[in-house]
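Hi all, long-time lurker, first post. I run a small reading group and we've been trying to get comfortable going from sequence to structure in the token notation. Rather than ask abstract questions, I figured I'd post a concrete chain and ask someone more experienced to write out its structure so we can walk through it together at our next meeting. Sequence below, copied exactly:
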Amino acid sequence: MSEDPIAKLKEAQGQGWKHFGPLEFATTPVAGRLVEFAGVRSDQRVLDVACGTGVAAITAARVGAKVSGLDLTPELLECARENSRTAEVEIDWHEGDAEALPFADSEFDVVLSQFGHMFAPRPDVVIAQMLPVLKPGGTIAFVTWPPESLAGSSFTLVSSSYMPSSPPGVSPPPKWGDPSIVRERLGKAVSEIVFARNQTLFPALSLQHYRAFVERTVGPMLKLIEMLSSKDPARLAQFSARV
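-- Answer (accepted) --
Happy to help. Here is the structure in token form:
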């Protein structure tokens, strides 16, 4: 593992998120809302940042857009490639880092991210990568969780109470769900900022069934359970009682 703390964090993220694939059943409906909200058209070039299993990228491609997708985790990209073959759409897939996009300035009409860019460790860096690849007058659109939502509050609990301290400059993902923080991060480079709220439904047999599923598939939660299971079972029991 790298000795650089940011690189170590990204390596751990990649290991955790490789199990995310089964959750695409819940994120696919959100992808449709994101692509519609962004106004994606067939004559546009679209980039999906931190694309995961490709549900947003594939949805945009089915509209007719020319789409590229990028993700840090090879296992998720393999799922994305298989999903695009099944959907019979052509997408330019890239293994890469949202904090170091391998694209030219002004290359895309639309930049999307569905629950992805928010896990890039440094918000200022990822925004400084996503905005330049947009054409003048282009659209950046993303889906995040409000901090007070179930997902947002769960990640806040994990990061603030149970995970080791993050390296300097790393921001908790739920902050991307705060409109005032989003406005500040986008700054004057983006005009006509629009927010919309909706719900994501997770079918489950029970709350306990949902929690068990999340603990097996959601990267940060999975890594926390692994860490506490081996190092501090008492804190794991305490955490399970709080969630």
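A couple of things your group might point at:
The mean pLDDT is 88.
The chain has one domain: 5-242.
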